[in-house]
Amino acid sequence: MSSPKTERRFVGKSVPRKEGRDKVTGAARYVDDIRFPEMLYGATVRTTSPRGRIKEIIFGENVPWDEFTIVTAKDIPGENYVALILNDQPYLVEEFFNHTEEPVLLLAHEDKFLVEKARRSIRFEIEEFSPVFTIEDSVNKREIIWGEDNVFKSFLVDKGNVDEVWESADVIVEGEYLTGAQEQLYIENNGMIAIANHEDGVTVWGSMQCPYYVHKALIKLFNLPEEKVRVVQTETGGGFGGKEEYPSMIAGHAALLSWKSGRPVKIIYDRAEDMAATTKRHPSHTRHRTAVSRDGKLLGMEIDFTVDGGAYATLSAVVLSRGTIHAAGPYLCPNVRIRSRAVATNAPPHGAFRGFGAPQSIFGLERHMDKIAKTLGLSPEEFRRRNFIQEGQTTATQQVIHEKVDLSGLMDRAFELSGYNEKREKFAEQNKSSRLKKGIGFASFMHGAGFTGSGEKYLESVVGAEATEQGNVRILAASTEIGQGTNTIFGQIASEALGIDYNLIEVAKPDTSNVPNSGPTVASRTCMIVGKLVESAALGLKQTLVGSGFLKDSGYTSEDFSNACRAYIEKHGALKSFSKYQQPEGINWDDEHYRGDAYGAYAWAVYVAEVTVDPTVYEAHVDDFVAVQEVGRVINPVLATGQIEGGVAQGIGYTLYENVVWRDGRMANNQMTNYIIPTSADIPPIRVFFAENPYAYGPAGAKGIGELPMDGAAPAILSAIENATGVSINHIPLVPESLMEELETETI
Amino acid sequence: MKNFAYARAQDADTAVQLITQNQNAKFLSGGTNLVDLMRENIEQPDHLIDVTGLPLAQVEELPGGGVSIGALVRNSHLAANQIIRERYPVLSQAILMGASAQIRNMATTGGNLMQRTRCYYFYDTDARCNKREPGTGCDALEGFNRIHAILGASDDCIATHPSDMCVALAALDATVHVTGTGVERTIPIVEFHRLPEDTPQIDTNLQPDELITSVELPALPFARNSMYRKVRDRASYAFALVSVAAALEVEDGTIKNVRLALGGVAHKPWRATEAEKVLTGAKADEEIFKRAAAEELKAARGYKHNSFKIELAERTIVSVLKTLASEGGAR
Ligand SMILES: Cc1cc2nc3c(=O)[nH]c(=O)nc-3n(C[C@H](O)[C@H](O)[C@H](O)COP(=O)(O)OP(=O)(O)OC[C@H]3O[C@@H](n4cnc5c(N)ncnc54)[C@H](O)[C@@H]3O)c2cc1C
Predict the structure, then answer these.
(1) Nearest to A226 by CA among A458, A521, A508, A513
(2) Which parts of chain B have pLDDT scores under 50?
(3) Alpha carbons A326 and A598: distance in angstroms, whole number
(4) Which of A61, A231, A335, B56 could covalently link to A300 via disulfide, CB atoms 3.0 to 4.6 Å apart?
(5) A726: left (phi over 0), alpha (psi -120 to 50) or beta
């Protein structure tokens, strides 16, 4: 029997989802389920070409325009920008526009059918300017479309002196790697409802990840004091980053229409609009030049990493930052230089998407590691093993790893579970005679949890815990439940900390009038960072109860606790406890030199993919997938496994299926019939394994896992395809026609 | 969605009567295609005549060895039918490779024949489409035309017919039985669907007041050795990039009988008569399969995003014929 001290009652258990019952029974209310009396339907009229100036707006005939509320940039009471980082993106085009699908006009009417008809009847008289569509053209300044040089942001990471290694290196290997855009494709389209007027201010309800981002943006848009703006999250059907920044835009649009019409306004995007107009994963281009010794040690890495940010800065700077820091991976190398930049093109802005730049740079790195191994005549695994980072060693940003890292151990486990070694041999033999070619490959990687560098320090997140009159504890946090399990793990963390029943913990719906700003629900930070605050806020509540004599310090039951809450409230009134983020000792980050402790903690992983390639019709299929990772303590095994399975599935889509086709800077395949995501029938069994190594500063020892699984699938699958076909491919997505091209070039 | 009136017919005559009496009326069977199109404002009928109550839901053996399939037989029933599975496996396989189990449970034989194209621009009401709005132009020509036609297209339309079932029917020489105002007639399957020419808004040679009552399969003993192969972007919920339906009979190494049809390549299920000519009477080997495939695709023309389908079609034909030749075609 384990001692009562270490026994955990709720953490590590797959307790049921807090909101699961409502979702399954249909009781959960999504934004489109909500309607108000007198409500109007809003629509967005958008640009249809990539860059230019609007000379005239032509309203179509046979539309009763006098019945419509029409909003233009002139109707904006405050600032015409979506407040975020650089504030360069307008809510509505005033004259000049920089991408297709850019919002110009807003319409509202009570008849949905008529709004659509009206929207379609509007045309623009425009003067076209020459656009830029590719990273290459943007970097080469074929046309200056943003700022002075098309560059939103650039970074330089410099460790050691990479210039000195080339001369003495035994081997130098170069490579170039490309990744495409990807659509988040959450199950619920974007949508918002607003009620806005001079007296009450602005209230919005909608699907979102980050209520306080929307709050900040609306304050500027309407030039209102904080307390006059209220943002309420409705049940949200997935986000994957796609509801990080764009909801601020839709909320603003709905609110502007409501402000002008004096009536509630609902805007719901249909799938085609959502896909064409909202953000996607940044396409990327990575160049590697690496010096290695004959015995397979990394001596120097020079990495050049560029992402396509689209037309406005939005979150590109921070996406670039994460991509940059992950670009050299979990390997020890004494000399590293990473130069990176996010550049502008005339496409709708690319934005947050699970992994946030890391899947892009890790793809390049892992493909390149395979290439170096091949050049040296080493197996890909042996080459990795000789360079895996160990406790006490430093990453590219010179962060000393203070935890025990055992990537070799994770690799052993992943290889054993997937039968990697036996299969390598078996497939090599079988492929000689069989028509179908089989292969197995892997990727090893890490993913930092929480905001980068000093991000968490500046955010100063706050979480509250309040006692309710029923004797429950309610968590007050702005972290959103978007399907990933926020409510449930918060419940587990709090009940564990307080030693009371899980069902006594409620989690308040994020509503800026009721919950403090605990930061955005992004960056694998909800469990590790916000969860820790949940733990301490809950403990603070208990302390007050103990201090005021209503509760014993230990040895109490759930009922005792409830009674104590009730008694306290009766005597003293409301009981709330708040906890604010404090950076753990010893975390130092130098923003200017991009050096130091980039993340509080990393999750570590080795993923193995097995594939079959059909060279007759160029189909590549993933047959088996093993995901082994160390993520600190697992709070809820079912949810954690779900996160990994979902991330891997999304990664498989990113690699073999999901191809955003661009035409004049617009997504040409913005339908679910032509933007292909894998179905359950395409996804192999995803076998998930956790190694646990509790992290001292995480709640109950947990780290973040939300983004990690997005990183590994693409390089592992291409490594397996190389194993199957002998052809090394350096770009994704690898749809059948590009596989055909690659295989045919190879055989010529 | 636009409002519409709804009526239910209990027999074929009433159904035909109702459709002639009402302007802008459409038959409704499984609704899996029509209702979607109405929701997207692509089809805007004023009247729907529900035909699901008609007594046309049987699969029956015919005296001469053929089979009659009622227009209201659900796709899933047809695919699971023992006679079909044994004598016409290509048809059963084709149906099972289409849509999803739920959709096949609803979808009917008549509706499947009449389903409309899946051209993205036909579906996108912001785009120009001669099929949806005649005379507006075709955005697919210069657009993302990956799933589009490589055979028999016109400058007005490069859409493809999306059905899998119909490709099998084309290979099996099926006939479609229809009834109109006072007339009944039969239409050979290869003449049922049409090429777009300059009237792509018309998909088939069925008249607006005609109802499909059944589909007849001829006795085709060698169709026991038949199969369907569908190349698509994912394992479910995807229309064919290219599909091949074939039946083959080989005697003493020589091809005695062959039926070959392609899907996903044209505005109609494409019966590969050129390839059949090359194959019939020839020695059954890979070389002749390749030659036949090349002959059929000689007239093919690719567009920006779909040129790969020409080679893909050839390769798929060859692989299907090879499989049929080795699995039981040789006697
Ligand atoms: C998500 C999805 C995926 C799909 N994937 C595939 C696929 O992979 N392969 C494939 O082949 N199909 C696929 N389909 C299409 C499916 O096969 C068709 O929707 C179905 O066969 C239509 O049959 P229905 O009975 O529902 O027709 P309905 O929708 O009821 O009608 C379709 C048309 O046929 C007309 N009609 C119906 N019955 C008659 C009759 N007796 N006489 C005259 N006219 C009639 C109607 O007026 C209407 O115009 C897919 C559909 C969906 C929604």
Answers:
(1) A513
(2) 329-331
(3) 10
(4) A335
(5) left
Residues 6+ away with beta carbon under 8 Å from A728: A367, A370, A371, A374, A718, A722
pTM: 0.95
Task: Mark B111-125 as b/e (b = at least 16 C-beta within 10 Å).
Answer: bbbbbbbbbbbbbbe
Structure tokens at A486: 């926020």
Element (H, E) at A446: strand A437-449
Tokens of B251: 């005697």
Locus of tokens 């029943």: A501
Q: For residue range A328-349, list pLDDT tens digits in order.
A: 999 999 999 999 999 999 999 9
CATH of the domain at B26: 3.30.43.10
A545 contacts: CB under 8 Å, gap ≥ 6: A467, A551, A561, A564, A565, A568, A575
The amino acid occupying position A674 is: N
Task: Please give the full DSSP string across B113-172, using - where no structure is assigned.
Answer: HHPPP--HHHH-TTS--TTTSTTS--TTTTS--TT--SSS-BTTB------SHHHHHHHT
Measuring CA to CA, which residue among B133, B117, B134, B135 is closest to residue B125?
B133
Distance CA A712, CA A440 (A): 14
Name every chain A residue with its beta carbon within 8 A of the beta carbon of B231. 617, 619
Q: Are residues B114 and B70 in the same domain?
A: yes
Q: Which residues pair with A461 in a beta bridge?
A: none
For residue A585, what pLDDT is reported? Answer: 85
Mean pLDDT of all residues in chain A? 96
In a mutagenesis test of the A interface, which of B100, B129, B232, B234 is the best target, namely the one with the most A β-carbons within 10 Å?
Answer: B234
Rounded Cα–Cα distance for residues B166 and B261 (Å): 9
CATH fold of A284-452+592-747, please?
A: Aldehyde Oxidoreductase; domain 4 (3.30.365)
- Which pLDDT score, from 0 to 100, does residue A7 have? 75
B231 and A116 within 8 Å at the Cβ level: the answer is no
- Distance, in Å, from the CA atom of A182 to the CA atom of A240, rounded to the nearest integer, reads 11
- Please state the rounded mean pLDDT for residues A235-249: 97
Cβ–Cβ < 8 Å for B321, B159:
no
Indicate the CATH number for domain A20-28+461-580. 3.30.365.10
Cβ contacts of residue A400 below 8 Å, gap of 6+?
A392, A393, A394
Q: Which residues of B touch A (CB under 8 A)?
A: 1-2, 41, 118, 120, 123-126, 143-144, 146-147, 231, 233-239, 241, 305, 308, 311-312, 315-316, 319
Q: What local confidence, expressed as pLDDT, does residue A6 receive?
A: 58
A577-613 residue pLDDT tens:
999 999 888 889 999 999 999 999 999 999 999 999 9
Q: What is the mean pLDDT of residues A384-407?
A: 97
Do B38 and B64 belong to one domain? no
Contact B235 A661 (CB under 8 A): no
pLDDT, tens digit, for every residue of A724-743?
A: 999 999 999 999 989 989 98
Instruction: Give the range of the structural domain holding residue B162, as residue numbers without chain letter.
Output: 56-331
- Inter-chain touch B319–A676, beta carbons under 8 Å: no
DSSP conformation letters of A612-655: EEETTTTEEEEEEEEEEEE-BS-S-HHHHHHHHHHHHHHHHIII
CB nearest B316 (choices: A617, A669, A735): A617
B234:A678 CB<8 A: yes
Options 3.30.365.10, 3.50.30.10, 3.40.50.1400, 3.40.190.10; CATH for A35-129+189-276 is: 3.30.365.10
What is the distance between the alpha carbons of residues A67 and A546, in angstroms, rounded to a whole number?
62
Are B57 and B111 within 8 A, CB to CB?
A: no
Question: Can you tell me the ipTM of this complex?
Answer: 0.91
Q: So what's the pLDDT on residue B329?
A: 47
B27 lines ligand 1 (CB under 6 A): yes
